[in-house]
Amino acid sequence: MDTTAPRTLDPALLRRAGRLLLRALSLVACVAAWQWASMRHLDLGLLTFQNVPSPQDVLDAAATLLESPKLALHLKASVWRVFAGFAAAGIAGIGLGLFIGRSRLLEDVLLPPLEMLRPIPAVAWIPLAILMFPSSELSMVFITFIGALFPILLNTVHGVEGADPRLVASSRSLGAGRWTIFSEVILPAAAPNIVTGLAIGMGTAWFCLVTAEMISGQFGIGYYTWAAYTIQNYPDIVVGMLFIGVIGMGSSALVKKIGDLAMPWYHMQRKKR
């Protein structure tokens, strides 16, 4: 007689599968609503879909782009600009954020001008970027740098300022020096905020890509989207938008994944919640 108990599915696995299914259904529902609105040429007065391409039109345009040899050149140019700007913003934002968060003097000296620059949209930087840099390529990298800098900087500052002062005081009472406190107390406490800032910064770097590639160039997904707009090729505009959205989402997810691997203690705490 078989007395083996029947296997039960892991509840955590079921929850994860349920969430993935819900997310997939959400995307399907959005595409279905888009298809319905474009087919009916929906006109709500303030919002109209009379000239919006249907999902099928966008799929056809995407298939044409995927077959084009220019796609690799577009992707290579855009990825280089975004990641170069993001890397520079990560170094500057984390470095400045760590120092500003730990020094009232630097906070008073550096934070006011940075806060004044923060609300300026990326498109407003185009004339200065052209004037400041000797090449259009550096100008485009600068625009993505500006887009990524402030989320990284401010999240780092908030992370440093949010470190538990009791842990700092306890470390001092045990004889820890300034560098030890910084590396073993402040930095681990600020790490989750830093990773969040990096993920947001990556997304905003891609967000600024169209603005950056308006400056000059013959290749780039942002340039492709802007060129499609100038000739009113609506399906290609949506294709460019979707490419930027998908690659930007994947890049941000990659940053968060690397952050989870670098912070196993924080990842375990989140799983227990």
Automatic annotation (TrEMBL):
<keyword id="KW-0812">Transmembrane</keyword>
<feature type="transmembrane region" description="Helical">
    <location>
        <begin position="122"/>
        <end position="150"/>
    </location>
</feature>
<keyword id="KW-1003">Cell membrane</keyword>
<keyword id="KW-0472">Membrane</keyword>
<dbReference type="InterPro" id="IPR000515">
    <property type="entry name" value="MetI-like"/>
</dbReference>
<comment type="similarity">
    <text>Belongs to the binding-protein-dependent transport system permease family.</text>
</comment>
<keyword id="KW-0813">Transport</keyword>
<feature type="transmembrane region" description="Helical">
    <location>
        <begin position="79"/>
        <end position="101"/>
    </location>
</feature>
<dbReference type="Pfam" id="PF00528">
    <property type="entry name" value="BPD_transp_1"/>
</dbReference>
<dbReference type="GO" id="GO:0005886">
    <property type="term" value="C:plasma membrane"/>
</dbReference>
<feature type="domain" description="ABC transmembrane type-1">
    <location>
        <begin position="75"/>
        <end position="255"/>
    </location>
</feature>
<keyword id="KW-1133">Transmembrane helix</keyword>
<feature type="transmembrane region" description="Helical">
    <location>
        <begin position="20"/>
        <end position="37"/>
    </location>
</feature>
<dbReference type="InterPro" id="IPR035906">
    <property type="entry name" value="MetI-like_sf"/>
</dbReference>
<protein>
    <submittedName>
        <fullName>ABC transporter permease subunit</fullName>
    </submittedName>
</protein>
<feature type="transmembrane region" description="Helical">
    <location>
        <begin position="237"/>
        <end position="255"/>
    </location>
</feature>
<dbReference type="GO" id="GO:0042918">
    <property type="term" value="P:alkanesulfonate transmembrane transport"/>
</dbReference>
